[in-house]
Amino acid sequence: MSSLCSNHGHCGFCYITVVRIGNNVRMGAASINTASSTPSSPDVDVAIVGAGFAGLYMLHRARQTGFTARVFERGGGVGGTWYWNRYPGARCDVPSLEYSYQFSDELQQEWEWSEKYATQPEILRYAEHVADRFNLRRDISFNTTVTSLQWNGDVWRVATQSSDDTDQHRQGVALTARFVVLATGCLSSANIPRFPDDHLFAGRTYHTGAWPHEGVDFTGQRVAVFGTGSSGIQSIPLIAKQAAHLTVMQRTPAYSIPARNQQLSPEYVADIKANYAEFRRKNSLTRAALGGDTPTGPHGACEVSEDERRAALEARWQKGGLLFLGAFNDALTNPESNRLIADFVRDKIRSTVHDPDTARKLTPDSIIGCKRLCVDTEYYDTFNRPNVSLIDLREQPVERFTAKGIVVQNAAGTSHDESSTSGSSRRVEHEFDSIVFATGFDAMTGAISKIDITGRDGRTLSDAWSAGPVNYLGLSVHGFPNLFTITGPGSPSVLTNMIVSIQHHVEWIADCISWMKVNHSPTIEADADAQDRWVQHVNTVAGMTLYQSCSSWYLGTNVPGKPRVFMPLPGFPAYAQTCADIAHDGYRGFHT
Ligand SMILES: Cc1cc2nc3c(=O)[nH]c(=O)nc-3n(C[C@H](O)[C@H](O)[C@H](O)COP(=O)(O)OP(=O)(O)OC[C@H]3O[C@@H](n4cnc5c(N)ncnc54)[C@H](O)[C@@H]3O)c2cc1C
Fold first, then answer.
1. Stated pTM of the model
2. ∠ CA(496), CA(498), CA(502), 5° rounding?
């Protein structure tokens, strides 16, 4: 294996324990909030950005394998997604018994999930339990945003900014680290669309991904919710029950499958726990690393009679959840099969929503599953409530915001008419007390691109990714030695049960740096050719599916100006096998 980077003559890594003394993070006797560290003796082995499920496990695993590590977290606590997304109705849509770590049998045996799909508070409690159980907090700097990462030819220099003004010692803490792991989350950088005059609105605004910790009481309020993806679909039914009136502002209708959430019975849980390892193994063999007990049907949707098709789809609809799409094995590869499956859901929407015009607006005409499938509790029924109305933004685009609300164009409605039938278009001002943006995230690359990352030869990551993200295995970028991304673009990531993908990446990275230690390899970096081939592979696999046939956050089209590139790689088992083979071959495709 060739060496791209100069070796500065030292061998192995630095294994000095970092301890927190008062407000100072200290390394032995030398404070690390200075730039005094020599390149060859990094302050820590591994700097980890983010304390969600990825960062927490990376810290634990790094320690277990004998490395020192420090985690930097923008938020005031652990949990990542589940720390920030406290909106009403927030919960997982992968069953709780699967949406949890499997690295510790003691942990998975002792933790009790109460519902099929755990709520945000319960998942946050779980993350906090993990942090306490494995004594992780002492190596986490909270309220600390990593602002820049500079490779100096030997180590990464990490610059941070603290939001805690009272703690002078944490302002701009910088440390050096042999490795950096970006555990920054795929859905952690909020996407808030801009509208003309939006600064004028005098009411309150919220983003579901940065929800106030004290909660929001919408009682008696006129509320608008922008967005009908997963967060909108989870929150709309609950906000509707509280608000005086709820107006849903919909850009694109979504397909949503009933969750059929329920309390978990002790017998069911005991059954799973008695054989948890096998349950996990079966799940990891499925394409999305979930639902091993409900395998994908053996046929294509066009290969069976209409009666059989309807029966199979009805059974999955009654069972509820994301596995609906697994009724047939060609849902995301055969457009005709997809249409038949989508027709089934479209019929369900029409038979649920009483008002035909509202049902029409709520009925998608796109490929089902092309955008992330949603899972709901009473979403479509909510539109039968007298206090809920729907504005289809394709028919009635927002013209501007006002102090009191939102003016939409081409409205057929009559209320609050601005009498502005000027020109050919009518305008209606809708008044609101609060506006909720359930508009999702700058997915997969958003949080990474907010960090100023400079790699070898002064090349920046924003430059390397200017036409869209490129990397090798979704883990490593050519030109950026010793930098790893967890669930990065180019890996199965958001197309899977993410905790499975997170755990897989963490273990691969920990094994890799352990291998480097044993082999006295100070640096590892993706080879340019291997990276090119990987990018081609991801495109080829994605091109065999229907994923690219509609605009979605998988493609980055929800963020103005973002390059249109399909980011995740479909198919967990084949991917995991490839990663294992590459490691087995002495990290084929990497320079060390
Ligand atoms: C509402 C919602 C529901 C979801 N439900 C599911 C589900 O049912 N199943 C599923 O598989 N996945 C689900 N996901 C995806 C979810 O994001 C992952 O499952 C998982 O929680 C991601 O963990 P993570 O640690 O990779 O990232 P995150 O949990 O996003 O954590 C990343 C952390 O990094 C921090 N950070 C980012 N940049 C910086 C920086 N520069 N400096 C310091 N800190 C930084 C952030 O503050 C954040 O706390 C859901 C996501 C959302 C938003």
1. 0.92
2. 125
Question: Look-up: residue for tokens 């035909």?
Answer: 356
Query: Exposed (0-12), middle (13-18) or buried (19+): which is 10, by Cβ within 10 Å?
Result: middle
- Are 568 and 554 in contact, with CB atoms under 8 Å apart? yes
| Contact in structure between 527 and 590 (CB atoms under 8 Å) | yes
Best of 71, 98, 120, 188 for a ligand 1 pocket test (most atoms within 8 Å of beta carbon): 188
Q: Token pair of 325, please?
A: 């799409």
Closest CA to 210 of 81, 84, 77: 84
User: In whole angstroms, what is the distance from residue 522 CA to residue 176 CA?
Assistant: 14
Q: What are 308's two structure tokens?
A: 């059989």
- Ligand 1: which residues within 6 Å by Cβ? 49-55, 72-75, 80-81, 83, 85, 90, 92-94, 99, 145-146, 183-188, 231, 447, 450-451, 486-487, 497-498, 502
Q: Spell out the domains of the chain, with CATH numbers in brackets.
A: 18-189+442-591 (3.50.50.60), 198-255+369-437 (3.50.50.60)
What CA–CA distance (Å, rounded) separates 99 from 108?
A: 11
The 3-state secondary structure of 143-156, one letter per residue? CEEEEEEEECCCCE
Cα angle, residue 377 at apex, residues 551 and 435 outer, rounded to 5°: 60
| Residue 388 burial by Cβ neighbours in a 10 Å radius (0-12, 13-18, 19+) | buried
Distance CA 532, CA 364 (A): 36
Structure tokens at 521: 């390899």
pLDDT at 565: 86
Name the stretches of the chain with pLDDT < 50: 1-39, 168-169, 413-423
Residues 6+ apart with CB under 8 A from 299: 328, 329
* Strand ranges of the sheet holding 222-226, from the earlier edge strand across to the other edge: 204-207, 434-437, 222-226, 245-250, 388-392
Cα gap 67→87, rounded to integer Å = 37
Q: Looking at residue 292, what is its pLDDT?
A: 96
Contact 222, 433 (CB under 8 A): yes
Alpha carbons within 13 angstroms on the beta-carbon side of residue 472 total: 27
CA–chain centroid gap for 227, Å, is 17
Residue 561, number of CB atoms within 10 A of its CB? 5
**Residue 331 tokens, joined:** 């849902």
